[in-house]
Design goal:
Elements: H1 5-22, E1 26-30, E2 36-37, E3 48-50, E4 56-60, E5 64-69, E6 81-83, E7 90-93, E8 98-104, E9 114-116, E10 122-126, E11 130-134, E12 148-150, E13 153-157, E14 162-165, E15 168-169, E16 176-193, E17 196-197, E18 204-220, E19 223-224, E20 234-246, E21 251-254, E22 257-258, E23 265-266, E24 269-271, E25 276-282, E26 287-290, E27 294-296, E28 306-308, E29 322-326, H2 332-335, E30 342-344, E31 348-351, E32 354-359, E33 363-366, E34 368-371, E35 375-379, E36 384-387, E37 392-394, E38 397-400, E39 410-414, E40 421-423, E41 427-430, E42 446-456, E43 460-462, E44 469-471, E45 477-486, E46 492-503, H3 506-509, H4 512-534, E47 542-555, E48 564-578, E49 584-597, E50 602-620, H5 621-629, H6 633-638, E51 647-667, E52 676-695, E53 697-698, E54 708-722, E55 725-727, E56 733-735, E57 738-744, E58 747-754, E59 758-773, E60 776-781, E61 786-791, E62 798-809, E63 814-825, E64 828-840
Parallel strand pairs: 1-4, 2-5, 3-6, 4-7, 5-8, 6-9, 7-10, 8-11, 9-12, 10-13, 11-14, 12-16, 13-16, 14-16, 15-17, 16-18, 18-20, 18-21, 19-22, 20-24, 20-25, 21-26, 24-27, 26-29, 28-31, 29-32, 30-33, 31-34, 32-35, 33-36, 35-38, 36-39, 37-40, 38-41, 39-42, 40-43, 41-44
Antiparallel strand pairs: 22-23, 42-46, 45-46, 47-48, 47-64, 48-49, 49-50, 50-51, 51-52, 52-54, 53-54, 54-57, 54-58, 55-56, 56-60, 57-59, 58-59, 59-62, 60-61, 62-63, 63-64
Protein name: Probable outer membrane protein pmp2
Membrane topology: Peripheral membrane protein
Signal peptide: 1-24
């Protein structure tokens, strides 16, 4: 078999080190031939016993599985691997292979799988890809004594996966009983599940335990199910020590229990008389979870303080991870029993670094508590911190804001005579994530009376800074102000919330909705310009035209305004006729299809039907001025200077369009993290009116490219409105109706060039918007009733417009024409292209 390089390294390192230490240690190689299965084997299982005083090394050359021992009808009273009392160290060197014990029913053996009688010697299992102890023995063996039992020390080191499950002992340590020191370190995956002891330590019993995670570490469902049982997962012997370090993975204690039927309670760890925790720490990004409490045997206090998240002396490593004590996994019935929620230590506790979290109504009890500035203590309402003999001194107390509405209180107690409670910095309202400020209850003001209760034997000292409150705010969601008020005797504190406003997230805002009115604005102006274009050309009595029309509007993004784009296209049909009085009447209809997008979450599809009516009156400039001057001296002075042949036109136009919108919203709502697409429909309309006049000046000099110059001035008004609507989907919002009003006075000049069968003109104009109401609407998030003004873009109020048109005659009855227009504003660009044909008669 080809062995991976990493496994060779794993096996080489301990082998070399052991060789240096043991010198003449006995070495035996194990391979697949050493496997045994009692259900298929024709021979009885033979245990291996080590007696070499210099120690024994078992070197694995292949994976080994020992299962179903003994054979049916036989008994097994000796450990599968035994180390005699006079023997040296016992080492199992995995070399990257697996080692499995399963269903080992050794009736009286101290350690069904591995037993060592050698005091002050060490049993080591290292370098395995998988190391498993399963039902060794199972609980069906009424006098079993665990999977591993050593009278010296034990080390489980540098294994990829360790699974220790469903083992049983009538004595201490359902899976492991170690009289000396037990070291478990750098295992990439470690699980103690469903192990059981009739006395102490459902999974582990030892004098001294060093537990350092190399990956996820789980203690789940272990139990000491007797009235005298202690330590559902781990029991530390009297005067022993416990060090727990979440160095490279989370450590979880969950569902571990003690007690006989009817008196079952949760217990993660039990500390024997005068036993102590020497280290409880987690590295950055890792957490130690105590869903079951820590208990103590006896009442003797320990002098050494527990410095949480503190490195060993001389070690510069920083521990900034999180330690969680939680009752969240308890059933409602279990939570009623305070024993299931109370962790007790007979030491002073100092919060040195990182974060300690109390959740789910737990009580953390110790001799006294102190806190360094680099650490945080986060407490849910309903949790308690109890100092039994000393004071409580806190510098960074944080209240979990998510628990504010549970109707409970945080309690700090240092009730021993002459002991104080001191809070030196402002209380902080902590949030787990910014989505808290999306909660609908923040839509109203609230007061949470007496949520912090203090009970001291002597003084309660609240520094001047601590009489204020620091709240972790979010730039999104409900905005408001948090305040804290202390009672006269400082024994209670009340926290209040005053709402101010609501700020939507980028996903909630949807500025595309009001910006759709700018699309209607562009489309109706382009339509009106096309009707004017349809009347251009040779002066026939009647004409009918059909054409395609397209428009593009691009609005650039700004710091507080999202960019968007509007694209539309469709068909226009129209007709014009010269009336008996010489006026020209034009009529047109259009159907447009549009697509709008905000380059983020929203895309709109629209369909517009529009109609327009245009009336043009042609006269000489002389007759117009004559009417305007009326009778009097001014007429006689000015009128002689006015040309009697210069043509002048007056025109008016009125247009109406109805639009049906269908918007698509794509969102990523948690949970689950799957893309959601929702469609919403609503309607709107647009009115547009225009009045204008122009004077055509013929170039009679013969010089210059253009033959006619036509200055003009217009007054354009556009009013667009869209209905209110409710969007249903992952992000459900209620949008009020919105409107856009714009009044512009374009002025410019048209330059014309005619040929025998062709006709061109170029238009340049300046168009200031003299009066405008920008689009906006009120948006309400239905999930929390948060409401805000969604503002559309504010296009620059001055525009430069250039248009170029061409006409070509196809005989006496037909004409082709095309038009290109470009509008420039400081914040946007728009284009339109039209092309079609006319039939003249």
């Amino acid at each position: 078999m080809k062995i991976p390089l990493r496994f060779l390294l794993i096996s080489l390192v301990p082998t070399l080190s052991m060789s240096n230490l043991l010198g003449a240690a006995t070495t035996e190689e194990l391979s697949a031939s050493n496997s045994f299965d009692g259900t298929t084997s024709t021979t009885s299982f033979s245990s291996k016993t080590s007696s070499a005083t210099d120690g024994t090394n078992y070197v694995f050359k292949d994976s080994v599985v020992i299962e179903n021992v003994p054979k049916t009808g036989e008994t097994q009273s000796t450990s599968c691997f035994k180390n005699d009392a006079a023997a040296g160290d016992l080492n199992f060197l995995g070399g990257g292979f697996s080692f499995t014990f399963s269903n080992i029913d050794a009736t009286t053996a101290s350690g069904a799988a591995i037993g060592s009688e050698a005091a002050n010697k060490t049993v080591t299992l290292s370098g395995f890809s998988a190391l498993s102890f399963l039902k060794s023995p199972a609980s069906t063996v009424t006098n079993g004594l665990g999977a591993i039992n050593v009278k010296g020390n034990l080390s489980l080191l540098d294994n990829d996966k360790v699974l220790i499950q469903d083992n049983f002992s009538t004595g201490d340590g359902g899976a492991i009983n170690c009289a000396g020191s037990l070291k478990i370190a750098n295992n990439k995956s470690l699980s103690f599940i469903g192990n059981s002891s009739s006395t102490r330590g459902g999974a582990i019993h030892t004098k001294n335990l060093t537990l350092s995670s190399g990956g996820e570490t789980l203690f789940q469902g272990n139990t000491a199910p007797t009235a005298a049982g202690k330590g559902g997962a781990i029991a530390i012997a009297d005067s022993g020590t416990l060090s727990i370090s979440g160095d490279s993975g989370d450590i979880i204690f969950e569902g571990n229990t003690i007690g006989a039927t009817g008196t079952v309670s949760h217990s993660a760890i039990d500390l024997g008389t005068s036993a102590k925790i020497t280290a409880l720490r987690a590295a950055q990004g890792h957490t130690i979870y105590f869903y079951d409490p820590i208990t103590v045997t006896g009442s003797t206090s320990v002098a050494d303080a527990l410095n949480i998240n503190s490195p060993d002396t001389g070690d510069n490593k920083e521990y900034t991870g999180t330690i969680v004590f939680s009752g969240e996994k308890l059933t409602e019935a279990e939570a009623k029993d305070e024993k299931n929620r109370t962790s007790k230590l007979l030491q002073n506790v100092a919060f040195k670094n990182g974060t300690v979290v109390l959740k789910g109504d737990v009580v953390l009890s110790a001799n006294g508590f102190s806190q360094d500035a680099n650490s945080k203590l986060i407490m849910d309402l309903g949790t308690s911190l109890v100092a039994n003999t000393e004071s409580i001194e806190l510098t960074n107390l944080e209240i979990n804001i998510d628990s504010l509405r549970n109707g409970k209180k945080i309690k700090l107690s240092a009730a021993t005579a002459q002991k104080d409670i001191r809070i030196d910095r402002p209380v902080v309202l902590a949030i787990s994530d910014e989505s808290f400020y999306q909660n609908g209850f923040l839509n109203e003001d609230h007061s949470y009376d007496g949520i912090l209760e203090l009970d001291a034997g002597k003084d309660i000292v609240i520094s001047a800074d601590s009489r204020s409150i620091d709240a972790v705010q979010s730039p999104y969601g409900y905005q408001g102000k948090w305040t804290i008020n202390w009672s006269t005797d400082d024994k209670k504190a009340t926290v209040s919330w005053a709402k101010q406003s609501f700020n939507p997230t980028a996903e909630q805002e949807a500025p595309l909705v009001p910006n759709l009115l700018w699309g209607s604005f562009i489309d109706v102006r382009s339509f009106q310009n096309f009707i004017e274009l349809g009347t251009e050309g040779a002066p026939y009595e009647k004409r009918f035209w059909v054409a395609g029309i397209s428009n593009v509007l691009h609005r650039s993004g700004r710091e507080n305004q999202r960019k968007f784009r509007h694209v539309s296209g469709g068909a226009v049909v129209g007709a014009s006729t010269r009336m008996p009085g010489g006026d020209t009447l034009s009529l047109g209809f259009a159907q447009l299809f549009a697509r709008d997008k905000d380059y983020f979450m929203n895309t709109n599809f629209a369909k517009t039907y529009a109609g327009s009516l245009r009336l043009q009156h042609d006269a000489s400039l002389y007759s117009v001025v004559s009417i305007l001057l009326g009778e009097g001296g001014l007429r006689e002075i000015l009128l002689p200077y006015v040309s009697k042949t210069l043509p002048c036109s007056f025109y008016g136009q009125l247009s109406y369009g109805h639009t049906d919108h269908r918007m698509k919203t794509e969102s990523l709502p948690p949970p689950p993290p799957t893309l959601s697409t929702d469609h919403t429909s609503w309607g709107g309309y647009v009115w547009a009116g225009e009045l204008g006049t122009r004077v055509a000046v013929e170039n009679t000099s013969g010089r210059g490219f253009f033959q006619e110059y036509t200055p003009f001035v217009k007054v354009q008004a556009v009013y667009a409105r869209q209905d209110s609507f409710v969007e249903l989907g992952a992000i459900s919002r209620d949008f009020s109706d919105s409107h856009l009003y714009n009044l512009a006075i374009p002025l410019g000049i048209k330059l014309e060039k005619r040929f025998a069968e062709q006709y061109y003109h170029v238009v340049a104009m300046y168009s200031p918007d003299v009066c405008r109401s920008n689009p906006k609407c009120t948006t309400t998030l239905l999930s929390n009733q948060g409401s805000w003004k969604t503002k559309g873009s504010n296009l620059a109020r001055q525009a430069g417009i250039v248009q170029a048109s061409g006409f070509r005659s196809l005989g006496a009855a037909a004409e082709l024409f095309g038009n290109f227009g470009f509008e420039w504003r400081g914040s946007s660009r728009s284009y339109n292209v039209d092309a079609g044909s006319k039939i003249k008669f």
